[in-house]
Design brief:
Helix content is 44%, strand content 17%. By secondary structure, the protein is α+β, with helices and mostly antiparallel strands. The strands form 2 sheets. It has a 4-stranded mixed β-sheet with strand order 1-2-3-4. A hairpin with a 5-residue loop joins strand 2 and strand 3 (83-88). The longest helix is centred in the first third of the chain and has 14 residues, at 2-15.
Length: 162
């Protein structure tokens, strides 16, 4: 009888045009509410928390920046702050499989044109991009490609989106 009551309630809500978004606004603390209302800008890291280096930064210094910021990646930006590429823990593992030079420049070892996300997108969309692309971190850029934030799966997990 409990299942019948639930089915009847869902049918009534559907008939009245009550959507998932309406439910999320009524229950913002629940998991559906977090999935449908939480934006990337609500969970992203900003300011001094952002891992970023210039393209001419030495690989060893880029690794220090990655370690210091603890995001699993660093972004490579131009002088204006536009994202040129990323360098991730996975990139480091691939480099270590062959002879490498710690004097290499980040611009030479970065992944160009990385996946990114916009601040006003839903955090659930970041989860989808990470899952389908098999990555664990994303830079957050504005419409001009300027770095405004970054996030990883741990940030999304802590926010209850995953």
């Amino acid at each position: 009888t409990l299942a019948m009551g639930d089915a009847l309630a869902v049918a009534l809500l559907d008939a009245r045009g009550f959507t998932e978004e309406d439910f999320a606004r009524s229950h913002p603390g629940g998991s559906l509410g977090r999935r449908l209302l939480l934006h990337v800008e609500d969970v992203m890291r900003k300011g001094e928390q952002l891992p970023k280096v210039a393209a001419d930064t030495l690989l060893r210094d880029g690794l220090v920046e990655m370690s210091r910021k603890g995001l699993g990646m660093t972004t490579i930006v131009d002088a204006a702050g536009r994202v040129l590429g990323v360098f991730t823990d996975g990139d480091l593992r691939r480099i270590l499989e062959q002879p490498f030079d710690l004097q290499a420049r980040m611009g030479d070892v970065m992944t160009r044109n990385p996946k990114s996300i916009r601040p006003r997108m839903l955090a659930a969309e970041a989860v989808h991009i990470m899952e389908t692309s098999r990555i664990t971190a994303l830079p957050v850029v504005d419409d001009d490609g300027m770095l405004v934030g970054a996030l990883n799966v741990h940030d999304l997990f802590r926010a209850g989106v995953m």
